[in-house]
Amino acid sequence: MKAAVLESFKEPLTIKDVKEPELTPDGVIVKLKACGVCRSDWHGWMGEWTGFLAPLPHILGHEMSGEVEEVGKNIRNFKKGDRVIIPFTLGDGTCPYCRSGHSNVCDHQVMPGFTYDGGFAEYTHVPDADSNLMHLPAGRVEFVEASAMGCRFMTAFHGMVGQGKVAPGDWVAVFGAGGVGLSATQICTAIGANVIAVDISDEKLEFAKKVGAVEAINSKNEDPSEAIKEMTKGGAQVGVDALGIQETMLNSVNSLNKRGRHVQIGMTPFGEKGRLKIPVNDIVSKEIQFNGSFGMPVSEFPGMLQMVEKRNAWSRANSSQKRFRWRALTKPSTT
Ligand SMILES: [Zn+2]
Ligand SMILES: [Zn+2]
User: Fold this and answer.
1) CATH number at residue 244
2) Which ligand does the CA of 132 lie closest to?
3) Is 14 in contact with 7 (CB distance < 8 Å)?
4) Which ligand is nearest to the CA of 93?
């Protein structure tokens, strides 16, 4: 099969013929239809995550959707031709965390595109597929949309719904209007929360407003935590750091009201070695919750997919009604 192979860090990928992945009895081979690119690919490509990245040459790509090509002999839930999403965090289905619905922190976790060959290729293998693969809603979600759901969208959904416990009417401050931040903005808006987007790019902030943010702050121009406290009359209920640097993490915590919830999704760059300073006294005295959030457990997928499917259907119906009304109003009168 053809694949884009990482042969040395920080160098262009090489398109070449490679061996197809091998099928295991509990696995599935997926013929890929779409694969996204995100900042995690960049971290891998830079050679920052050698702690768990498979040795080179390696095939990156972890935001995947496609069709089932071949199933192992023990597979019960999938057959050739099924449309599927592959989450980027795969559990073994048997450890205490998987069995209690937290496959994203499995004791024997594997990650396609990182711990083994991923999606910048024609085919990939999904181990323990009965408990890891997800069916796409029939005909309602396209492959390109679905591929992003296996990484940035599911990560934002788990961060906001599972860990941040965002509720209708909450103020949610989203730091970083990239893939995860924009997904978090859409999800929180759908839940009925008020999103304040924070970034250093006006263009990204404009886009955040298009997908639901009610306020936008360019942190190059003003102190975002002070602006947020003023806008919300005290502070946000939830803050999310979608980037993972000292400044955005601190701004998120500082923008919270008492008993607010901070959600840390962004991981630190190599230089920080996973260490940032946190304002402990404020966290204690304001009873702030500091939550880590990693990927999404498979158990939360059905809720997320139903939300996407039904909202897609609703907006299709709604926009056709609008077009119909507009045509009806502008049609020249014949009487
Ligand atoms: Zn990703
Ligand atoms: Zn497990």
Assistant:
1) 3.40.50.720
2) 2
3) yes
4) 2
Residue 189 vs residues 10, 119, 185, 213, 332: alpha-carbon distances, Å: 37, 31, 6, 7, 38
Give the Cα separation of 56 and 27 in Å (integer): 23
Predicted confidence band of residue 40 (pLDDT cuts 50, 70, 90): confident
* Tokens (6 digits) for 94: 């048997």
Q: Are residues 64 and 168 in the same domain?
A: no
Question: Which ligand sits closest to the CA of 44?
Answer: 1
Instruction: Tell whether 308 is covered by a domain.
Output: no
Q: Please tell me the distance from the alpha carbon of residue 6 to that of residue 36, in angstroms, as a whole number.
A: 16
Task: Band the pLDDT of 51: cuts 50, 70, 90.
Answer: confident
Task: Copy the structure tokens of residue 117.
Answer: 């060959």
Is 326 inside any structural domain?
no
Nearest to 5, CA basis, from 91, 101, 120, 85: 120
Q: What is the length of the chain?
A: 335
70: CA distance to ligand 2 center in Å? 24
Per the structure, the count of domains in the chain is 2
CA 90 to centroid of ligand 2, rounded, Å: 8
Residue 259: Cβ within 10 Å count: 11
pTM comes to 0.90
Name the residue among 260, 267, 253 with its Cα closest to residue 237.
260
Residue 99 shares a structural domain with residue 13? yes
> Range of 102's domain?
2-141
